[in-house]
Every structure is written in structure tokens, then in C-alpha cells.
């Protein structure tokens, strides 16, 4: 125990006057009695060992000296030195990135960090404020500039470790904002040190409290498929971040069934890859790594992949031999769809999702997919049957192609038909369809559901209008295509990391998007207006299934995997030094000595004794209350002893 | 100060003071004496010798036996009763002059004893032992003197320092015919009392010593750091009172009383300790009766 203001101890000299006053007997009360005859003899005995005896017996003096002692001690501001504890105003950054899940310290690095912060909270001085920031994918201020330890502890308890990378830049920005509110604040970084290189300088001293001891971790760093000539090839790469060579068992599952297990030897600080040839119809792939040796991070031992062929968005574009440059161009750039070219008359296979017939005869029976029919033709051998789908009953001359009505449908979102000129269109009868664009002479664009298939009919040839030259054309085609064949509702190039945002493009007619998370809960979002929807609950690793619902039912919008393929998180080795801006901070263990001040307790004690003294004084008797007290204490002690004895 | 009411006086008239040995009296009293005397109570016969009073010859026996016999009759004497009341300042305690005031209690007791004596024909003298010398009333006989005795007693006042030794020696010299002597005091006399008591006993007094103490002297209600001031001598004693000191005082007090009792017992002195919260009627009608001082 040391003192902040040891000079105050000199005030202890005040005990001298107090004792002197007692010894001078300034406060004796004169009491008349009939005779001191008997007392004189007593006095003779007593005065033999006065004045010390008197001092000893005088409870009030003793209490006063105690009060003085405690007050002087309180003024001297004693404190316990608390090792590796940060005192003063602090901004604490709690790393909650994936690497903090490592279990090289029990129970985990994150819990250890929580413990460190709890100690810091416990070591806070009376007026010291703390701001607690959880550094995750999105840094969160859990508690802002408070002296309330309970509040801080509650806030600390709500902190959750995440599965992704932490946004240190955002956290440092928050911390520098918080530190500006304090005078001589410190920023405490409780982390395993996986900080990015380029961070802005903090306007405060940075204290680094490291957690973690080991770097032993074997991780799956890639899992991907590609189409080759032999079939679907799967590539998995495994990285050993530890200092010891490891042997790992890699198990590949296709769907729920085990496909293969392979023992992989990985040298220290090296990687290894393995490949498999998978069956063509593979969609969902899961890899799991099992390591016998040191492998403290479990999160990167599992990975998922979705073979792109699984959710096919293939379109077959059937055009006259001359082709249609407009359609070919537009389908080359439309996202989420892969177009193949066919010619009229050639055999049509069944494995497409969307068939586009441009100025060609629609074959009978209808191919099993959605249909976009442009400039419908009737003829050949199939004429009568096609009549069930549609009938061409005449033509609409250019004088009657002025548009009279646009249906208010999502399909026509952003479509501007005001400047479109059409030379000639066909008058088409299709009772199952609704007219989207209606001109004076008849419908120009129809859409509807025919025996479970979505069909759209454009009644004019693109070459006979200036539509393909208008800005509306790609919008209309995108709308039509996404309604006809929604395909994938997301872009997942290069894989998605935990915590990353996934923009969902549900397509024009979709009313609701659902995402089934790896933990089988469902995320739901209503589609309003144009909406690109951002899906932000990618916290967990695993497979996310997107479901799209529109007026006609629910369709799959594809499945995407979220994997921790992040070398910065997988390399869990704790760093001794972190760099934030220009300053670097070393492990603070033992460097800082906190002060747990004791003066409030001492002052409280002095106050309690003051109350006791006052009570004794008021009672006017020094012995009776004390006897009662003493008897009470003895009884209590006896009770304890009995209980102890029984225990 | 009104010492008694009429009812109490009537109660007192039924009592008699008792002395172990009746002293030679000069007047014929109500008391039997061990001496043969002139009363009508027959005691014995003896042969006539020359010089005997012929009035006491039993003529009937002479007529029958023709030999002169003197009839011996029991002598009846009066008893000299001395009542000494200590009026030192320490007797004026407690200060509030209430029921337990020692001097008032002592004067009332003196009045009671004096009245009993007067009522039974004893020769009663009452003396107040004060700082300025002894103040004496009597000796007087006959119950008609009771009122005067009470008037005298009501003048009693606690004052000054009394040296019991000096006062008792003085009384031994001038007190007159020895008899039954009651000493009423608290014995808080710094110089002691033994020499005086010796002098009194040497003169042939039979002593009854009534030791008066107020309740707060037996059990002091004091605590804390106090300076005790002697009301009589003005001497101060600074003392820190706690349970131990008070216990020590109790022990000292009991030892003192025991010593007094054994000293008095060894010298044939009736030692009667009295705490003044005892009603005086009970003291006289029960305690003193039980101790054989009154009958």
C-alpha cells in the first residue's frame, strides 16, 4: 500500500493535542458527593498506574484517535497497486473478430479479454470514466463515458464475439472521437493483435492488452468448383499457421452424404491443396477439417461451396439464321443469365430455364421452361396446336401503334414508352395473358402464366421498331427476364465473408424475399418499389438459401455460402506489438500500475466510528452499552463456533 | 421540620427502650434494677441488722416468728438515655432533602427514640454533634417533654466538619450519668471514631450505633470522568469511573461495613447499619425490635 499524498500523514500529529487534552483532564465534570472517604482509598490504588490506565480505559479517547487516524489516512489517499491495470479515463476497444474465438486460453480469447476489461473496470478510480467499444464488423459503442461500474459490466456482458473481420479503421475513428471528450485519456486495445496496417493516428496514448498465447491453427482457406472437360472439379486448400507440421483429415460432403475423406499433411507455416472430381449434378458441397494437434480456431475448419451449375440460369435464344443483334447483345450483359444461341429448326433440348423465340415458330410440344416470344410466327405443321397458346389474327398497322395504356405492373417499372415507334405489329389473341402495353390496334406486350409456365409475348419485331435503340430497351428486357427466370438474386463473386453485406436483387415481380440462415432461422424482407435489398445477417458461416415469393408462388433464388476464408483471422498468432498510426504499443503487462484508492472506505469507517462515539456520549455511560455490545458479540461468536462445529 | 405526626407518636408510645445492664439511677424509675430497692415488688428476706430502716421490717413475720426480718423489695430505677446525632455536612445528603436525607432521617429517628424514652420515664438527653461543639437538650423525663424535644430536633442542620473522636471524648467527659447511648452517624469522619468510642465505653455507656447511609452511597450512580468533591471537606478526587472502579468501590464499601460490624461486635456495641430508603417506622418497629433495642 502506498500513498498519493503522504505529507497529509503529518496531520496525525493532531493526536498529540487530543491526548494532551485528555491527560490535562480538561473535561472533568465536578460531582458533589457526601464524602470521598471511601473513594480516596480507591484512588490510591488507581493513581499508582495512572495516567496510562486511564488512557487505556477511555473509550471515547480511543474512538476519537481512531477517527483521526482514519481521516488522516484518507487524506493521505492510500491505494493498492494493482498490476497491469489501467487507470484514469479510458476508451477500451474490445476486439470481437473471429480470431478472438480461439481457445488457446480458457475458455476463449474473447472471454479472457472480457475478464481483462472487467479487471480494468474494477480498477477504475472514483472519477474515472470509461467508454467501451466493441470492435466487430460494425464497431459499436457499448457504454459511453460513464463512471458507473455496474453499467459498464452490464455493457460488457452484452458484448458478443463475431465470426468475421473487425473494422479497426471505424473503431479507431470512434475511439479518437471518444478520447477527445476526456483529458489525458488512454485508449486500451484488448486484442490478439490482428490489426490492419494502415490506421489513423489516435490522439491519445495507446495501451495494448494482448490476449492469446498460441498460433496453432489449421484452416481451410479455399473451397471452389470449376467446370473442366472431365467434369466438375473441386479444389480445397488447407493452410497451417502453426509452427509444427500437422496432419489433418479433410472430409468432403455432397449435400448430406460423405463423398470422400482424405488425410492431408501440412508443413509448418505452409499450405496444401487437394482436388476432387465431382459428379455433374453436384450443387452443395461441404468440407470439414479435423486436426489432431494444436488447432485452436474451429471456425475456419468448415467450409461450404455451391456449384454454379446447380442453380442454372441458362437461356436458349432461338432466332432466324440472320440472328438478332439486339437480343444477343442484351443477353450477353444481363446479369444472372447465361444465354446460348440456337437456330430455328434445330433440335431444342430440355435443359434451359428460358427459351426465347424471336421471329421463329414455337415448337410443339412447348419446351419445359419459361418462354419469351418476340414477333410470333404461325405456320408449319404445328399451327393449330399453337392456337391454344396464342393466335395471330391480323396485323396492327403503324397508324394504330400509338400506345394507349400501360399496365401499372412491376414489369413495366422505369419503362418509358412515350418515344417508341413501331412500324407494324401482330394482333395476337392469348386469353391467359394480360396486356401490359396496349396500343390503339391491340396489345403490344402480353404476359401471363400458361400451364405452369411463364410466357411473355412481344407482338412486333424488334427490327421493325426503334425500341432497341431506346434506353428503355435494356430495362424492359431485364424486367422481363428477371420475371421469366429469376435465377440468382445475388452477386457473390469471390465468396462472401462473415458479416459482409449481400445485395439481393429480387427481380421486378418479387414481393417478398426470404433467406434461410445456416441455423435454420428465416430472414424476411418485403420488396417495396425498385428495391435492391441488402441482406446483412451473414454473421454465421454456412449456407444461405434465398427464396423469392411473387404473386404466383415461391421460387428459389439460389444458395450462397459464407466462409471464413480470411488469412488475417486464421493467423491467430498473438502479436506483441500493434501499430495504430505512427505509434506502436507493446504489451502493457506489468508496465502499468493501477491505483485502487481506499480513501472512501476509510472516510466511511471514520464516519461510522463517529456515530458510535456520539452514541456512547449520548448514552452517557461508557460501560453499559459496551457490555451489551460485548455480550452480543460474544453470543454471535459462540453461535458461529457452534455452526462451524456442526459444519 | 415536622418530624412526626400524631399517629406515629401513638405507635411509639407502646415501645420501651431496652438496655442490657441498667445503670444506677438517682431517681426512682419504671425500670427494675438488679439492686434491692423500695418498690412494692418483693424480692427476698434477710436478717435484721442494726441500722436497718425499721420501716422495712416485716412486722407480720416478726409477730409469727418473733425474729426481725427485713423485707427486701426490688429497686425500680430510671434509665439514662443518650441520643447523639452527627450533624456534619456529610449527613446533609442527598442534597434534595428528600425521604432519604440522612440528617432528616437521623433526627426523625432520634425523635422516635427520645419519645420512647420519655414515654417510659427514662432520663433522655439528646445531643447534636456539630462542628462548633455539642448542642445538648435535656436531660429530661416525662412524656410532656416530647414536644420540646421535637422542637429542639427540628433546629438540627448539617454543617461543617465533625471530628467524631473529639465530640465523643467531650461527651464522655460531660455527658452525665452513663446509660444507654445511641450514636447516629454516617461515620464519614476522616479522623476515625475509635478513640471517641473507647472513651464513651470506658465511662460505662452501653452503645447502640446506628450507621446511616443513603442509597447512592451504597450504589453510586456515577460514570465517566468525574471529579468527586467532598461536600463536607471540599476535598476533590479525580476518578475515571467504569465498571471496574465501581465494582472496586462496592468491594471497599462492603469491607468497610464488615470491619465496622466486627469491631463493634467485639466491643459489645450494637451495630445497626441502616440505608435511608428504609422507612423509619419499619426501622423502629421491626429492625430495632429484632435487634432487641426496643421492646
Write a concise synopsis of the structure shown.
With 647 residues, chain A is of the alpha+beta class.
Question: Can you offer a commentary on this structure?
Answer:
The complex is a heterodimer of chains A (647) and B (295). Chain A is of the alpha+beta class and 647 residues long. Chain A has 13 helices and 34 strands. Chain B is an alpha/beta fold. Chain B has a six-stranded mixed beta sheet, sandwiched between helices. In chain B, strands 1-2 form a two-stranded antiparallel ribbon. Chain B has a two-stranded antiparallel sheet with strand order 8-9. Chain B starts with 5 loop residues before the first helix and ends in a 5-residue tail after the last helix. Chains A and B meet through β2 and α2 of A and β8, β9 and α8 of B.
Describe the SSE topology.
The complex is a heterodimer of chains A (about 650) and B (about 300).
Chain A: E1 2-3, H1 15-23, E2 29-33, H2 37-48, H3 52-57, H4 59-75, E3 78-83, E4 90-95, H5 109-122, E5 130-135, E6 140-146, H6 149-158, H7 168-180, E7 186-191, E8 205-210, E9 218-227, E10 232-240, E11 246-254, E12 257-266, E13 270-278, E14 284-291, E15 302-306, E16 314-319, H8 325-333, E17 338-343, E18 354-358, E19 370-374, H9 383-389, E20 391-396, E21 403-406, E22 425-429, E23 433-439, E24 443-450, E25 453-458, H10 472-484, E26 502-504, E27 510-516, E28 522-526, E29 533-535, E30 542-550, E31 553-562, H11 567-570, E32 577-580, E33 583-586, E34 593-597, H12 599-619, H13 624-646
Parallel strand pairs in A: 4-5, 4-7, 7-8, 16-17, 16-18, 18-19, 19-25
Antiparallel strand pairs in A: 1-3, 3-34, 5-6, 9-10, 10-13, 11-12, 11-14, 14-15, 20-22, 21-23, 23-24, 24-25, 26-29, 27-28, 27-30, 30-31, 32-33
Chain B: H1 6-13, E1 28-47, H2 59-65, E2 69-77, E3 80-86, H3 102-119, E4 123-130, E5 133-140, H4 146-153, H5 164-174, E6 180-185, H6 194-202, E7 206-213, H7 215-218, E8 224-230, E9 236-241, H8 243-266, E10 270-275, H9 280-290
Parallel strand pairs in B: 3-4, 3-6, 6-7, 7-10
Antiparallel strand pairs in B: 1-2, 4-5, 8-9
Helix pairs in contact in B: 3-4, 5-6
Amino acid at each position: 500500500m502506498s500513498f498519493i499524498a503522504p505529507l497529509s500523514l503529518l496531520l496525525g500529529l493532531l493526536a498529540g493535542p487530543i491526548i494532551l487534552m485528555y491527560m490535562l483532564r480538561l473535561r472533568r465534570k465536578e460531582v458533589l458527593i457526601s464524602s470521598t472517604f471511601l473513594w480516596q482509598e480507591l484512588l490510591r490504588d488507581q493513581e499508582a498506574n495512572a495516567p496510562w490506565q486511564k488512557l487505556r480505559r477511555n473509550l471515547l479517547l480511543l474512538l476519537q484517535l481512531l477517527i483521526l487516524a482514519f481521516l488522516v489516512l484518507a487524506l493521505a489517499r492510500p491505494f493498492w497497486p494493482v498490476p497491469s491495470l489501467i487507470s484514469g479515463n479510458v476508451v477500451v476497444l474490445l476486439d470481437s473478430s473471429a480470431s478472438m474465438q480461439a481457445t488457446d486460453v480458457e475458455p476463449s480469447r474473447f472471454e479472457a479479454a472480457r475478464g481483462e476489461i472487467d479487471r480494468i473496470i474494477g480498477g477504475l478510480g472514483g472519477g474515472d470514466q470509461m467508454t467501451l467499444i466493441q470492435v466487430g464488423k460494425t464497431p459499436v459503442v457499448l457504454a459511453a463515458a460513464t463512471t458507473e461500474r455496474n453499467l459498464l459490466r452490464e455493457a460488457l456482458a452484452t458484448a458478443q464475439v463475431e465470426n468475421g473481420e473487425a473494422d479497426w479503421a471505424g473503431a479507431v475513428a470512434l475511439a479518437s472521437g471518444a478520447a477527445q471528450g476526456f483529458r489525458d485519456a488512454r485508449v486500451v486495445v484488448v486484442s490478439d493483435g490482428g490489426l490492419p496496417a494502415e490506421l489513423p493516428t489516435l490522439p491519445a496514448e495507446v495501451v495494448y492488452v494482448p490476449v492469446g498465447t498460441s498460433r496453432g491453427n489449421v484452416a481451410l482457406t479455399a473451397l471452389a468448383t470449376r467446370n473442366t472437360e472431365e467434369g466438375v472439379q473441386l479444389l480445397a486448400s488447407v493452410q497451417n499457421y502453426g509452427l509444427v507440421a500437422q496432419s489433418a483429415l479433410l472430409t468432403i460432403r455432397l449435400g448430406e452424404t460423405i463423398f470422400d475423406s482424405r488425410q492431408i499433411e501440412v508443413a509448418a507455416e505452409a499450405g496444401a491443396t487437394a482436388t476432387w472430381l465431382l459428379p455433374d449434378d453436384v450443387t452443395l458441397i461441404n468440407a470439414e477439417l479435423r486436426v489432431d494437434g494444436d488447432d485452436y480456431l474451429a471456425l475456419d475448419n468448415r467450409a461450404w461451396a455451391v456449384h454454379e451449375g446447380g442453380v442454372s440460369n441458362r437461356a436458349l435464344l432461338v432466332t432466324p439464321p440472320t440472328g438478332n443483334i439486339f437480343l444477343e447483345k442484351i443477353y450477353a450483359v444481363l446479369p444472372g443469365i447465361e444465354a446460348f444461341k440456337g437456330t430455328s429448326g434445330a433440335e431444342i433440348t430440355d435443359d434451359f430455364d428460358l427459351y426465347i423465340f424471336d421471329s421463329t415458330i414455337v415448337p410443339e410440344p412447348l419446351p419445359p421452361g419459361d418462354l419469351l416470344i418476340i414477333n410470333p410466327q404461325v405456320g408449319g405443321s404445328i399451327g393449330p396446336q399453337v392456337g391454344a397458346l396464342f393466335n395471330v389474327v391480323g396485323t396492327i398497322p403503324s397508324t394504330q401503334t400509338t400506345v394507349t395504356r400501360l399496365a401499372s405492373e412491376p414489369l413495366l417499372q422505369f419503362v418509358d414508352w412515350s418515344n417508341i415507334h413501331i412500324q407494324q405489329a401482330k394482333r395476337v389473341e392469348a386469353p391467359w395473358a394480360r396486356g401490359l402495353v396496349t396500343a390503339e390496334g391491340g396489345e403490344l406486350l402480353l404476359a401471363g402464366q400458361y400451364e405452369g409456365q411463364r410466357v411473355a409475348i412481344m407482338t412486333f419485331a424488334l427490327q421493325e421498331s426503334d425500341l432497341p435503340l431506346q434506353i428503355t430497351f435494356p430495362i424492359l428486357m431485364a424486367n422481363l427476364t428477371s420475371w421469366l427466370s429469376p435465377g440468382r438474386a445475388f452477386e457473390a463473386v469471390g465468396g462472401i465473408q462473415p458479416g459482409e453485406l449481400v445485395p439481393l436483387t429480387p427481380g421486378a415481380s418479387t414481393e417478398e424475399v426470404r433467406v434461410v440462415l445456416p441455423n435454420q432461422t428465416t430472414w424476411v424482407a418485403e420488396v417495396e418499389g425498385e428495391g435492391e435489398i441488402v441482406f446483412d445477417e451473414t454473421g454465421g458461416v454456412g449456407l444461405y438459401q434465398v427464396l423469392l415469393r411473387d404473386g404466383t408462388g415461391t421460387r428459389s433464388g439460389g444458395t450462397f455460402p459464407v466462409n471464413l476464408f480470411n488469412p488475417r483471422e486464421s493467423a491467430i498468432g498473438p502479436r506483441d506489438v500493434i501499430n495504430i498510426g505512427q505509434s506502436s504499443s507493446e504489451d502493457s503487462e506489468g508496465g502499468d500500475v493501477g491505483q485502487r484508492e481506499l480513501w472512501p472506505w476509510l472516510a466511511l469507517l471514520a464516519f461510522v466510528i463517529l456515530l458510535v462515539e456520539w452514541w456512547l456520549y449520548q448514552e452517557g455511560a461508557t460501560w453499559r452499552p459496551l457490555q451489551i455490545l460485548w455480550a452480543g458479540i460474544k453470543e454471535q461468536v459462540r453461535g458461529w463456533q457452534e455452526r462451524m462445529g456442526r459444519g | 421540620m415536622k418530624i412526626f405526626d400524631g399517629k406515629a407518636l401513638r405507635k411509639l408510645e407502646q415501645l420501651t427502650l431496652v438496655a442490657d445492664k441498667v445503670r444506677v439511677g438517682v431517681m426512682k424509675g419504671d425500670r427494675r434494677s438488679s439492686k434491692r430497692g423500695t418498690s412494692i415488688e418483693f424480692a427476698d428476706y434477710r436478717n435484721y441488722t442494726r441500722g436497718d430502716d425499721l420501716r422495712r421490717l416485716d412486722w407480720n413475720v416478726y409477730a409469727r416468728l418473733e425474729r426481725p426480718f427485713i423485707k427486701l423489695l426490688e429497686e425500680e430505677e430510671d434509665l439514662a438515655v443518650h441520643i447523639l446525632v452527627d450533624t456534619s455536612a456529610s449527613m446533609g445528603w442527598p442534597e434534595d432533602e428528600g425521604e432519604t436525607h440522612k440528617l432528616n432521617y437521623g433526627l426523625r429517628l432520634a425523635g422516635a427514640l427520645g419519645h420512647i424514652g420519655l414515654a417510659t420515664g427514662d432520663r433522655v438527653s439528646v445531643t447534636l454533634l456539630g462542628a462548633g461543639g455539642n448542642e445538648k437538650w435535656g436531660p429530661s423525663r416525662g412524656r410532656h417533654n416530647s414536644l420540646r424535644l421535637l422542637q429542639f430536633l427540628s433546629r438540627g442542620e448539617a454543617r461543617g466538619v465533625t471530628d467524631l473522636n473529639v465530640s465523643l471524648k467531650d461527651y464522655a467527659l460531660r455527658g452525665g450519668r452513663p446509660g444507654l447511648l445511641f450514636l447516629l452517624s454516617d461515620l464519614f469522619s476522616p479522623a476515625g471514631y475509635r478513640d471517641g468510642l473507647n472513651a464513651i465505653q470506658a465511662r460505662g455507656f452501653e452503645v447502640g450505633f446506628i450507621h446511616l447511609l443513603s442509597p447512592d452511597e451504597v450504589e453510586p450512580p456515577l460514570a465517566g470522568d468525574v471529579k468527586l468533591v467532598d461536600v463536607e471537606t471540599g476535598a476533590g478526587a479525580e476518578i475515571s469511573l467504569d465498571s471496574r472502579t465501581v465494582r472496586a468501590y462496592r468491594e471497599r464499601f462492603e469491607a468497610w461495613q464488615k470491619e465496622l460490624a466486627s469491631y463493634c461486635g467485639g466491643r459489645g456495641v450494637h451495630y445497626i447499619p441502616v440505608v435511608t430508603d428504609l422507612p423509619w417506622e419499619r426501622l423502629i418497629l421491626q429492625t430495632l425490635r429484632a435487634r432487641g433495642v426496643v421492646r
